[in-house]
Design a protein that fits this description.
alpha/beta, Phosphatidylinositol Transfer Protein Sec14p, five-stranded mixed beta sheet, two-stranded antiparallel sheet, CRAL TRIO domain containing protein, CRAL-TRIO_dom_sf, CRAL-TRIO_dom
């Protein structure tokens, strides 16, 4: 078993606005969710072959500089169209979980912004993205890690991609869904983000996607032992003296 360390607890306090009871619940959820959603967490270690293959297919990375309102920008771009088309959508959720795990130890940000370039997405892949998978992705990000969505900027979205977002709308609060913006071209990013945050690949002054990707790969190597320990992080919910709010994850009982 492993316990979240001091830095992890400190960041959880910050993102939960120093509310002790809420932070305790999130720490409790930290253990519970890994047990009750084993189909995601049992295969999320970045050292597993499937996860390594995913990281060779795409850039899904946090950019190094924060925005002026202290938000962290994540960039998503598919590198290998054919390989990604055959990949498991759950691996994308697992990668997001791993990014958030790193952030609990190294990052302090008050919100998240996602820039998603769908230029190489295929209908074949989108057909595998079920409503339940979208639901898990949104709720793990929001409830497990308490992340605050400040904005999502979508580039090169085909009509079938927009249908996915129509499904996501069912699971999102209207206030959050209103923060999703479909961009006609890359000039949209220059209107919405600081120039030193935008990667060179998109006409900005920030580090290139490849450079940021290489830094992330080094981080996964550095934290290898941590991820191996997380593989052993499970709880026996039957030993609880009373039922908790975490018995029903995301509002529904979870058992697989």
């Amino acid at each position: 078993h492993c316990v979240p360390d001091e830095k992890c607890i400190q960041n959880m306090l910050i993102i939960n606005k120093f509310k002790i009871d809420k932070t305790k619940q999130k720490l409790d959820m930290y253990y519970t969710i890994r047990t009750q959603m084993a189909h995601i967490f049992d295969f999320s270690n970045p050292n597993l072959p499937g996860m390594k293959e995913l990281m060779d297919m795409l850039y899904f990375i946090p950019l190094p500089k924060l925005t002026t309102d202290m938000s962290r920008v994540f960039f998503f771009k598919i590198r290998n169209k054919d390989a990604f088309s055959d990949s498991d959508p759950y691996n994308g959720i697992r990668h997001l979980v791993n990014l958030q795990e790193l952030r609990l130890h190294e990052d302090v940000a008050f919100g998240d912004i996602f820039v998603i370039d769908f230029a190489n997405i295929t209908m074949k892949f989108c057909l595998k993205v079920t409503p339940m998978k979208l639901f898990y992705m949104l709720k793990i990000h929001e409830r497990f890690f308490s992340s605050r969505l400040r904005g999502s900027y979508i580039l090169n979205a085909a009509p079938f991609v927009k249908r996915l977002f129509a499904i996501m709308k069912m699971f999102m609060k209207p206030k959050l869904f209103s923060r999703i913006k479909f961009c006609k071209d890359v000039s949209c990013l220059h209107e919405l983000l600081p120039q030193d945050v935008i990667p060179k690949d998109y006409g900005g002054q920030g580090r290139s996607l490849h450079e940021s990707h290489e830094v992330l790969m080094e981080k996964f190597v550095e934290y290898r032992e941590r991820f191996d320990r997380l593989d052993q992080l499970r709880v026996d919910e039957t030993l609880r003296p009373v039922q908790t709010q975490n018995r029903k994850i995301f509002g529904v009982s979870v058992g697989f």
